[in-house]
Structures are given as C-alpha cells and as structure tokens.
Amino acid sequence: LLTRIASAADIVKESTTGKDTAPTPIADAISAFKPFITRSKSEFLTTALDEAEHWASLEAQDTYTDGFTTISMAICKNQAAQVAKLVSIFDEVLKRVYESQRIVAAAVFAEFINQQCGGDLSHINKLKNGLLTKLVDPCHIVRMLCIRGLGNLASVPDDQMKKHCTTALSAMMAGMDDRDDPKDDITLEAMKGLSKILAKVEEDNIRAILINISLRIRPCFEKDKAPVRAAAIRLFGDLSKFGDGPSKAPFLEQVHANMVSLLLHLNDTDADVKKSCKVSLKLLGPLLESSRTNEMFQKHLREESTLMDGEFMNDLCKSLI
After folding, report:
1. In whole angstroms, what is the distance from residue 321 CA to residue 37 CA?
2. How far apart are CA 147 and CA 208, in angstroms?
3. Element (H, E) at 179
4. What is the pTM of this model?
5. pLDDT (0 to 100) of residue 16
6. Residue 14: its pLDDT value, please?
7. How far apart are the C-alpha atoms of 158 and 181, rounded to whole Å?
8. pLDDT given at position 125
9. 144 and 189 Cβ atoms separated by less than 8 Å
10. What one-character DSSP code corresponds to residue 199?
11. Going by C-beta distance under 8 Å and a sequence separation of 6 or more, which residues neighbour residue 169?
12. Closest of 272, 262, 297, 303 to residue 283, by C-alpha
C-alpha cells in the first residue's frame, strides 16, 4: 500500500466534465490504507500520522517522504518485530524500475537506521549496503534519502558507529560532490549528516579530510537557500572539535579565511543563519588564541538575544587589532 500511495501521488487525474467530484488515485490509495490500519490493529500508525499532521503529506509528491518517515518511525517504536520482514520486502522494492517505489524504500530504510531498527541492530548492515548501492540512482530524491539514511548511522551505538564511520563519512563527501542537485537538497542532507557523524567520531577518523570538508562547505555560506547557508555555517563550527589537535595549524587558516564571511552573516536576513553564526563563532572562539576576542564571542553571541551589530563589530575590530 505504501508503494501504491507513492505511485498514485505522481498521477494527476484530469476531469472530463470540469468537475472534481471523482476520487483521485491518491485518495483511493489512502482510503484503502486507513481500513488496513484498523483491521491489522495498527492504530498507532493513525496516531503517529495525526500527531505529526502527515496525512496531507502523503497526498503530494514533494512531501510524501515525510509521511513514510513517520510511518517507519511508528513501526519501529510499536511493532519492532515486523522490521525484519519489512527490511526484506523493501530491499527488493529498492531495486525496482519505478522511482516512486524506490523513494518509498529509501525513506523507510533511512528511518529504520535512525530508529536503530527498533532495537535489532543485526539489520543495519543490510540497510546500509542497500542505501550505498543507490547513491548513483538516477533519481535525485532517492540519492538524497540515501544520504539521509547513511547520515543516520550516527544514531547507532558508539561501538557500532566505529565500524561504519569511514563508510558514512565517504558517503557524505560524495553527497556534497553531487553535480545533479539543482536545489541543493542532497548537499543539505550531506552537511546535516556530517554534523551528526562528527559528534560521534574521533580526530584521527577525520584528520585526513578535515581541510577538504572546510573547503567544500565554504561556497555554501553564500547559497541562496537559507537552510543550506545555516547548515554549512553550523557544520564549520562543528569542525572546531578537531581544531585543537594535530590539525590545529591548517584548520586555523580556514577559520581566518572564513571569519569575514561568518561575521557578515551575523546580519543575515534569515534568523536560522544568524543563530548558526552565533553558535559556530562561539565554538571557534577558543581556537583564535585571543582571550579578549573569545570572551566577546561567548558574552555577546547569545542565540536568542538581539546583537547590537555596530557596537559589537567596533569592539571586535579593536580586539583584533
């Protein structure tokens, strides 16, 4: 039924009478799904979709992945015993020729990883390998969901994460290199995934690619899409975790190179970008080897407060000189 919903969402039914009284294919699919939930005694799915307000999401091609994610999460939390069967079923769906069906499978796999397969980690490898095979899928939505799922490997326990970190990092780097990403959706997922993974790995895992990451995200500071700017700036701040070890000197060069851009984006038109700048500058402050500058960052760059931009910049310039 989930694959039917995805397929039906792509269909636009044209009326021959000029009236829209006839049910649409997607309405038919969702109408079939609702009694299935009741008869299978899976009312937790109705509750989850109601609470997330994702029934409407299932009706549109650009949002139905949100609904599939909610359904997958609810299954892991309420019917974990069914996850193994669903992994086998959707592993075959992921290989099908119809992209809408591959989208469903990728969305389900991504959330199963995020939910640790309802507690049964023995399926993680199969999920990971399935998503890896689709990083070159012709459909950019499938590729985006694969990057999301591989980034969700950060959700598994630390001992498991150590086994997957190299693969996950490579996948995020590949996502940032995707050339067929006109709306930067894959780039955004890759940066979000990297931020999650960086919180779980050690410096020696990231040392070889630290500067490469810094260079790749720098152009994203100036993207038109505000969430991309915010994610890139936040990711650069997260890299500060690795900036006080063997990579300190080259990373400090990146901090200096990006400082003007970060300071300018404190006055960005988007509130989330401003917040990301404040958070990142506070994380980077201790690396600047200037106690006065760091003190200013920690004192004045409060996430929810309004920054007196002119006064702050004037005092900051004095401290830098």
Report:
1. 66
2. 21
3. none
4. 0.90
5. 44
6. 46
7. 32
8. 94
9. yes
10. T
11. 194, 197, 201, 205, 206, 209
12. 297
Query: Which candidate, 287, 283, 224, places its Cα nearest to that of 253?
Result: 287
> Per the structure block, which two tokens stand in for 46?
């109705």
Sign, CA torsion 26/31/73/101: negative
Question: CB of 237 within 8 A of CB of 279?
Answer: yes
Q: Which long-range contacts (CB under 8 A, 24 or more apart) does 155-164 make?
A: 155/113, 155/114, 155/115, 155/116, 155/196, 156/113, 156/116, 156/121, 156/124, 157/116, 157/121, 158/200, 160/121, 160/124, 161/200, 161/201, 164/124, 164/128
Residues of the chain below pLDDT 70 = 10, 12-23, 321
Residue whose token pair is 């599939």: 68
The contacts of residue 140 (CB under 8 Å, 6+ apart) are: 178, 180, 181, 185, 186
User: How far is Cα 236 from Cα 217, in angstroms, rounded to an integer?
Assistant: 8
Tokens 């894959």 belong to 186
CA distance 184 to 126: 28
Here the tokens at position 4 are 């039917």
pLDDT value of residue 17: 47
Q: Considering only CA atoms, which of 278, 214, 275, 277 is closest in space to residue 241?
A: 214
